[in-house]
């Protein structure tokens, strides 16, 4: 049996954990630079606040209905996510963190559980008691069915935060009931484009998709859809390690809080992104062979400008100093005087496994594992940016705009909640 535990409106609920004054108010959270609405709590959803709409378009609507607006507080969300995952991990023998608010469970040696519905409530109560975050819990015979059950636990009527998809001995089928109520795009792995193509064949919901011929689906749409059909019928096709495979590309990009024209500021921003990419690459045990560096003005500008450059390392590396150093080699090809830069970023696009690296007989390796280990340990202990390359100095000119930022209750001494008795 597989399970999926997913937080309800995670970002918005995180904002309420340490601020009792807004727990019973509608809350929305904005994306980078306070651009769009990315998270909406249930109370705000009842008011009709949509997700991914630019903030300026609904600013007056939010003010009229006294909706609490917050900037994305990633430090707070990451810390609460770690706490939530530590609680969830206690309730299975195999646990994989799928995203910041989702966690898959595999109950390989938990055959003693007789009532999965009750066990789901045990998990929900534990997470709520220790983190004050509400979660939905879904169980199924495959990863896709567990994902569908989780969707039902949170969004379909008749469920109380826990859903189990199984065919019982008396002939009743929760699988049919749930999949019939799910649209195609609610099924894991079916996006908008694929959903439109399937709907043209008369396939209207998840149950219709489950009743298709796997071979016919493969011939028309490929092996991924064939696997989805089999998984919806309780036939495991996705291996446990497939959902946690290493990323093939790792990027760090961001728009500026205000336009950047100074070359030194732009170079510092690119260096900071390169440093972030290097840290992420080491975390998953990979090396970078090719690095993409780009910067652009706004696509809404009259004279839109975008320039990118690919730097190739002689030997794949995870050394922050070498990765950041690549910025200097290509910077003159990217920067143009007079351009008001709106966005920039860096990405590793050709990654290799650090354990199976092909060495070069005539070129020395650029890696320095002891130095990078020390670098990561210091930043992990004292916070990201405690140690940084000099060229990546912080600047308010390119720092992210967060005008509605809540305190970092769990990561800054000055922001720790105070209780007055």
TrEMBL record:
Keywords: DNA damage, DNA repair, SOS mutagenesis, SOS response. InterPro entries: DNA/RNA_pol_sf, DNA_pol_Y-fam_little_finger, DNA_polymerase-Y, DUF4113, PolY_HhH_motif, Rev_trsase/Diguanyl_cyclase, UmuC. It comes from the Bacteria. Residues 2-191 form the UmuC domain. PANTHER family: DNA REPAIR POLYMERASE UMUC / TRANSFERASE FAMILY MEMBER, PROTEIN UMUC. Belongs to the DNA polymerase type-Y family. This is Y-family DNA polymerase. It comes from Colwellia echini.
């Amino acid at each position: 049996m597989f399970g999926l535990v997913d937080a309800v409106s995670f970002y918005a609920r995180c904002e309420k954990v340490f601020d009792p004054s807004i727990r019973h108010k509608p809350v929305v959270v904005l994306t980078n630079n306070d651009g769009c609405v990315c998270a909406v709590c249930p109370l705000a959803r009842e008011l009709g606040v949509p997700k991914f709409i630019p903030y300026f378009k609904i600013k007056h609507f939010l003010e009229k209905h006294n909706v609490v607006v917050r900037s994305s507080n990633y430090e707070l969300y990451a810390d609460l996510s770690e706490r939530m995952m530590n609680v969830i991990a206690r309730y299975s023998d195999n646990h994989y963190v799928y995203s910041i608010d989702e966690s898959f469970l595999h109950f390989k040696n938990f055959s003693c559980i007789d009532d999965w519905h009750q066990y789901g409530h045990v998990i929900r109560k534990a997470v709520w008691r220790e983190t004050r975050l509400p979660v939905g819990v879904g169980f199924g015979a495959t990863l896709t069915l567990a994902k569908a059950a989780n969707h039902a636990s949170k969004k379909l009527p008749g469920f109380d935060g826990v859903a189990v998809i199984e065919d019982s001995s008396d002939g009743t089928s929760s699988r049919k009931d749930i999949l019939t109520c799910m649209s195609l795009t609610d099924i894991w792995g079916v996006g908008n484009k694929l959903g439109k193509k399937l709907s043209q064949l008369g396939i209207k919901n998840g149950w219709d998709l489950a009743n298709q011929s796997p071979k016919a689906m493969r011939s028309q749409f490929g092996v991924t859809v064939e696997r989805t059909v089999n998984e919806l019928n309780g036939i495991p096709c996705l291996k446990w390690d497939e959902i946690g495979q290493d990323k093939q590309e790792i990027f760090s990009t961001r728009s500026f809080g205000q336009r950047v024209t100074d070359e030194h500021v732009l170079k510092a921003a690119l260096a900071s992104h390169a440093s972030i990419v290097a840290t992420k690459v080491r975390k998953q045990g990979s090396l970078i062979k090719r690095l993409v560096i780009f910067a652009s003005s706004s696509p809404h500008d009259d004279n839109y400008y975008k320039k990118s450059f690919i730097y190739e390392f002689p030997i794949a590396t995870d050394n922050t100093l070498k990765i950041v150093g690549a910025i200097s080699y290509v910077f003159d090809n990217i920067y143009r005087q007079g351009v008001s830069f709106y966005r920039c970023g860096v990405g590793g696009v050709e990654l290799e496994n650090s354990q199976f690296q092909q060495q070069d007989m005539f070129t020395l390796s650029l890696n320095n594992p002891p130095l990078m280990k020390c670098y990561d340990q210091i930043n992990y202990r004292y916070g990201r940016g405690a140690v940084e390359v000099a060229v990546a100095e912080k600047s308010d000119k390119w720092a992210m705009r967060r005008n509605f930022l809540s305190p970092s209750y769990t990561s800054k001494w000055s922001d720790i909640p105070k209780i007055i008795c």
